[in-house]
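Thread: Newbie trying to understand structure tokens

Hi all, I'm a second-year student working on a class project, and my supervisor (Dr. K.) asked me to get a predicted structure for one chain before our next meeting. I've only ever worked with sequences, so writing a 3D structure as a token string is new to me. If someone could post the tokens and maybe explain what I'm looking at, I'd be very grateful. Here's the chain:
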Amino acid sequence: MARHLKISSIIVLSLMLYSFGTNSSTTKIPVSTNSEEAEDLYHQAFHLNSIFKADEAKKKLIKAVEIDKDFGAAYIFLSQFGSNSGSETDDYYEKALSLKEQLNDVEKCILEIRTSYRDNDTEKRLEYSKKLLELIPNNAIAHQRMAYTHWDMGNIEESRKSLLLSIEKDKNYSSAYDDLASNYMFADPKNYEKAEKYAAKALSLNKKESYYHVLLGDVYRAQNKLQKAAEKYDDAYEAGTNNFYSAAKAGHAYTFIDPTEARKRFDQAINDSKNSNQKIGPEYAKVYTYLHENDFNKGHAQLLKLKNNIDSYEFTDEKKQEEISQILWHEYFIMSHNGQFDAAKTALEEKKGIDMEMAKRSKNERAVKNTESSYLWMESHLEIMKGNYDDAKRKLAELKEIVTGESNPKKFDGYHNLMGMTSLMSGNAEKGVEHFEKVVDQSNIYFQYHKGLAYRVTGDLDKAKEIFQSVATYNFNNLNYTTVRNKALKELEKD
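---
Reply by user tm_fold:
Sure, no problem. This is what the structure looks like when written as tokens:
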């Protein structure tokens, strides 16, 4: 599901069991605990997580299980912070499994849904999302849960219907308005007018929370109203409930207005950060500002500063490994797009070593398989960048074989995206279009740009222009986007 940070965390943290902003019983799900204090901490945690305060949420949950050591629902929630392969998250998950017989029927559904994310099993997710809804049909959260599942599966209209049903059950359920705004903002067919409407409604219910000011700013940003977005992020900063996040968002908007000002805002976010987990994000974002200026050397230099200073971050050994892996991915991407293929390959190989070590340590066969397939995908991408299209196709055939047995409808997306890119660059744009059109999740802006190129080569200039316009005005920053935004703008200048 394509969404901003909250959605990504909700996908992983899939079960919003309580929402502040309403006192209705339709937005509470029964949890099994012998302590009212532990239950209250649990509900507070869900609220905090919904407004981008994950670290505070985790602290609440840890306190909850200290009070009630058999609080199964809290362990399920704790297992969802961090990567699926992390030892800490595995420990919490195993603890939740050990308490399965003590869980109520609703909590058992929640545990099964959590398992479906670990196993990448969308069919199981759908099955237990339906069961949850059968158990509590008048619950706004259950309908929201179903919306997430539909969204995961690419059933966008169904996800919107489920979110509207969630609001029908509780008209003051701000989280559902938030999700509707994000759905219309990110999922096709997009509707920014509706996104703005629902974001404004969510804000009206939570005027003192920075997150909801940010949400409306995101809607403006999605429409390329960058100055208006920056002003809304400033409003969020003035609200004062999450200055770090607001400053970081302003930095992202200014990336496309004034990169120098953007770097100042990211420095502000770093200064306002409460921990190393918050601090590192703006450091990556500063790298992006240089890449958007087409200065790959300065971008790489900024990345190396982060790499060399990683020991100064207060990370666990496991978290440190994860971040080094991310830095190496960034290094690979920068080097491969700067024509430094030997350096790119070195970064890739180092990354594989770290990722495989983490996957094997988890004793999770799925994690090992996912790592192997991810590396194969990256190797294929490198061959494409080098112009070795036959080698890329051979590796992609291996990738296709590996993912064939998976139930996720998006299982071939990585294969088709790279085959589309390979076909395009090797002179068969028509075949490239065929592959790009087979992709279920069309949210990857990097491949959308290449899809636009394929349409241009085949002579469908209207379709190409539509895609380039979408890419040029996307404005939600990530590493992939740094290499295609300016190119999309140049393609639009040709018309």
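A couple of things are worth pointing out once you decode it. DSSP finds 26 helices and no strands in the chain. Confidence is low (pLDDT under 50) at residues 1-23. Feel free to ask follow-ups in this thread.
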